[in-house]
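assembly run, all chains below
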Amino acid sequence: MIINRKIPFKFLLNEIKIPLIIVVLLGFIFGLLPKYFPNFSPEIPIGIATTLGIAISILLSYKINQSYNRWWEARTIWGAIVNDSRSLVLQLQLYLNENDELLRKIAHYQIAWCYALDKSLRKQDVLSGWENLLNKEDLEKIKKQSNIPLAINQLQTEAVRKLYEKKTIEEFARTQLEVTLTRLVASMGKCERIKNTVFPPTYGQALNISIYLFVVFLSLSPVLQLNLFLQIIILLSISMLFFILQKLAHQLQDPFDNHETDTPMTSLSRTIEINIRQLLDEKDIPEPIQPKKFYLM
Amino acid sequence: MIINRKIPFKFLLNEIKIPLIIVVLLGFIFGLLPKYFPNFSPEIPIGIATTLGIAISILLSYKINQSYNRWWEARTIWGAIVNDSRSLVLQLQLYLNENDELLRKIAHYQIAWCYALDKSLRKQDVLSGWENLLNKEDLEKIKKQSNIPLAINQLQTEAVRKLYEKKTIEEFARTQLEVTLTRLVASMGKCERIKNTVFPPTYGQALNISIYLFVVFLSLSPVLQLNLFLQIIILLSISMLFFILQKLAHQLQDPFDNHETDTPMTSLSRTIEINIRQLLDEKDIPEPIQPKKFYLM
Amino acid sequence: MIINRKIPFKFLLNEIKIPLIIVVLLGFIFGLLPKYFPNFSPEIPIGIATTLGIAISILLSYKINQSYNRWWEARTIWGAIVNDSRSLVLQLQLYLNENDELLRKIAHYQIAWCYALDKSLRKQDVLSGWENLLNKEDLEKIKKQSNIPLAINQLQTEAVRKLYEKKTIEEFARTQLEVTLTRLVASMGKCERIKNTVFPPTYGQALNISIYLFVVFLSLSPVLQLNLFLQIIILLSISMLFFILQKLAHQLQDPFDNHETDTPMTSLSRTIEINIRQLLDEKDIPEPIQPKKFYLM
Amino acid sequence: MIINRKIPFKFLLNEIKIPLIIVVLLGFIFGLLPKYFPNFSPEIPIGIATTLGIAISILLSYKINQSYNRWWEARTIWGAIVNDSRSLVLQLQLYLNENDELLRKIAHYQIAWCYALDKSLRKQDVLSGWENLLNKEDLEKIKKQSNIPLAINQLQTEAVRKLYEKKTIEEFARTQLEVTLTRLVASMGKCERIKNTVFPPTYGQALNISIYLFVVFLSLSPVLQLNLFLQIIILLSISMLFFILQKLAHQLQDPFDNHETDTPMTSLSRTIEINIRQLLDEKDIPEPIQPKKFYLM
Amino acid sequence: MIINRKIPFKFLLNEIKIPLIIVVLLGFIFGLLPKYFPNFSPEIPIGIATTLGIAISILLSYKINQSYNRWWEARTIWGAIVNDSRSLVLQLQLYLNENDELLRKIAHYQIAWCYALDKSLRKQDVLSGWENLLNKEDLEKIKKQSNIPLAINQLQTEAVRKLYEKKTIEEFARTQLEVTLTRLVASMGKCERIKNTVFPPTYGQALNISIYLFVVFLSLSPVLQLNLFLQIIILLSISMLFFILQKLAHQLQDPFDNHETDTPMTSLSRTIEINIRQLLDEKDIPEPIQPKKFYLM
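ok done. output:
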């Protein structure tokens, strides 16, 4: 997640340098052509280019809107994970005896679950960095499954089951814990949905083609064929705007992909860890994750 | 569901070849007409065509937006089915004795339900490919009903009823299982709603007519009547953009129709099967569905 | 609900014939005026008309969007009615003894409730076509109330009350049934909200005036005043597009009004009847409602 | 709420007469200026005005969209109040003995609550028109609080508490009634949110300034400076469209403000009263509220 | 939150004075350049500037839309906090003995929680202004945690636990209180999400660049290069519109940032305090927060 109010211009430019080079080339080709081939003077009226420009703005706005909605949904899901993790511990403290060993265990499972979900969504090594939260036996169990966070949910379910069998919690408390775990399973599924569902690529491809078409049509407008340098400046400045927004939309679409615009899952997992450990009145509280330059992962 | 970030251009073009041929023909007719009938020179001002072009962009954006919402809703419903299927098994493991035969039975019913829903939405042979998950008696029962997934829900309800009658689960656990089954019935109903509700076709028909009108008006603009070849290139490139987006909207509207852009129901059903079988600690785990070329069904 | 992918063009045209005739008249009047009154040559620049044309497209898109949302909400509410009707029967079969007479009674009340809601929303004779589902005494009771579906809800509540008094269901089962009935009451209220809340008519009236203004301004543009026939063709083709979309928006706004674009309530009620009777393993299963021409009611 | 499909044109015009007079004045001033000060001929190209016109259309559409959403949300909240009021009575009839005096009391409290909420949102005398629904002691109690509907909720809570203390309802039934009351408290809070949150006025002010700017720029376009009368007709017709939509947006924003476009709270409260009294099988059923001219309050 | 229907123009202008000065400078530079360097006459066609102007309007509308949604979501979350705070007290009064000391304690915790959340979101001194609501021991406890509102939630949970241990409430009542507390934890998490998630700044930066580009292109249009004074008036009036809307969007994005457009959290917390104290029938009721000039904090 980007945390600065202003992103370095260099960063923005770096993301779209290839299309900008293509625009410069197109500008040169179609700007010089009439000079070497005087017979070739298509003179496309500027109305064609401006119509295309407005069409691109409209389509781009929709794309950004939908990409933003995905990105915001992703952030909302992780917000729900934060809430349910905190509530889970408060519920345990309401329904259990404070010093129960299983209380601490389920709370630690929850921290492990967050880190595991973070790493599995980012396609990183799922079983590293938090293994100490589980004992050896648990680790053996979850390694057998392909979906590690779901396997941790099963561990939690089993622990709640033991609480009930030991008569530590009543029937109703068991159900309330189950409801919270069900919500966490649902949040995990929602993250997987966003991760695995590619935004229809046709839209982006059609937009890209349109921007290049716009550049070509604009550079062939008779009113622009006076000054090659000025023409390229105009082409660059408008197409840059389109490409930056297109790139932004592209990144917001995939909020679990190790971009700078990602949902800050590692940082949120750390916040959850800090909150849970403080609620448990533990001593060793880790530090919050520090931002890298202008973003937070 | 399309899983590649880039769709082969050939595929896109193939989808819209008929309208493009019509555009070429219209371009020829209205481009050549003034040459053979010099008296016929309508000279429609380009403002008419550009206004229509902008109008089309606006209407198209709305259509894509609403189609995308349908497609995303369909995917979200199946995401909820994934979540509820997993939660159902975790609930059973929380409330039942681990080795209870009915636990495995309800879980297998759930796998069968997913495959049956997939096939019934795609209008394929509903009772094939997963029959081994049900015993003969169950198969007889569900064949009597016209809505097979709903019939499987009834089998699950009956099994939960038996659990309660055998005193295996308490009153409250029974209710929680019922709540999950109710959510699954609701997800099924939501899929049927999307499947059976045709997006108002007037909108798409009006858009199509507008695009052809746009092509005609543009080809009759005086500023374009210089070079037939160039004119057809311009007509093709802009109308191609419109037709691709129109086609995209059309496909996203119907996410259960055996398109490449479908919700990947078979693949998700397989994921559910793998997850459930691993949660049950079974041995024979099937492989995930492999994508075909650039999409997944 | 329209079920064909293509609506006959004749049907579309029939809906908007009056405004189209007005457009032709306006085109004649403002096209011929300068010929008879040469001094009258307003020559409104085409920019005015194109601006108005784009403004109309923007406002029209919003109107269609909001109308579509109403229409889709109406369909979603009836989807929820389908789901809750099915779940109600499954719940009864879970909580009750299979052969209990009240089970069948509540299920039949549910079928009656759907038909009664359908008819009361369409302002048809509410008490016909399904009376055989209720006995005489029940019919007497509900006739005393002005809201028939709500009266049937009261009958269901009473039946659930009897089940509990007879000790047939436990406290918790009673509550679950009540929750489902509450959801059905809410769905009914949502339908009434859509039915009774007129979409602000100012918007549609302002749009209509704008389209006629657009026609007048366009017909007075100097660039168009060359060929009366061509001018009227252009006026007709663009305004037709606007009027069709305006009409579409108008119909989608009111999804319970006996239009061809209505939510297919009768057909959905029949589906509910079929599903419920099959779940009850009854013998006399009615046929699904057949579509009329290109739509389903 | 407006209930006619067509609003009298006089009514629309009356709402926007001041801005229209300003437009006429502006048209005169900028139309006559060049005649008296021939040196003053700004000749602003029409492109500036058309761009501004399109910009206004876009911004206006968004404003109407958001205003409509507020208005629809307000209507939806009152729809939920209707549903919960009905369900509350059905719940009481399910859980209580039919002739219990408290049943009738809680139901009457509910009718009083609706009228009180209606009047408190409209800043009318809250304690009039429905006082007979409460006894003297209750009236004394609620007068001590600044939020009358909330005070009635407290009376209801107290009554439910008595039902439980008298052992008339079980633990679970008590909770279900509490859940319904909590939903009603939430609906009240949602109404207060809409009532007390002023839509950001900057947007509307910026739009108003833009419309006047548009009028000035348009009247200074060289192509329009031929015929003063015609010019003012054009200015009026386009700006009237903008002002009507701006006014509509303005009214939809505030659905509890004694406008003709208000949520019909008094009428809905009456419907609730009729429904509740019929469910209670009472004799004196009041008449529905009759519309005033073309709207319903 | 702004409470006046009209904001002083001075206030609006003050917010955007820097960009307006830049616009004046740009207008001077590009307006005077051709006079001193007659060879430099780029003559960019006005179509480029108008296209950019329309593109800016479209992108701006989307930004305002999304910013408004964030702002409205923030207000909705605090609306839910108001509702849940009221319901919590009503629930306690339903389930507890009226004079129970813990009832008053939990209600006072709730008031403290609201003020603490307000101050922690606004990055003010969290522990001031409401400390008297907690006793010394409680204050010690919550100071140990980094998230003060969450620590207060833990105090509430502990108090509910004591109620259950003292047998003051039943199992089911305990759960209902827990559900309300869980909702409050969720509302807190939602506020943190909005506070900590920076709206993608690329969008705003790209918009700003576009507005300056628009100014430059417009000032270089040949049709405008006649009258320097008039030109700057036009540049200022249109760019002012864009900058005001851009600024509005910017402020709505961050509703917890001590702006005049903030969610009025202090005022809402005070309302909650008044409501709770009146429900508890206390004597010392504080006054509502008074607005400062034209806004409420």
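Chains E and C do not touch (no CB pair under 8 Å).

Residues 46-95 of chain E form the longest helix (50 residues).

not gonna interpret more than that til we talk
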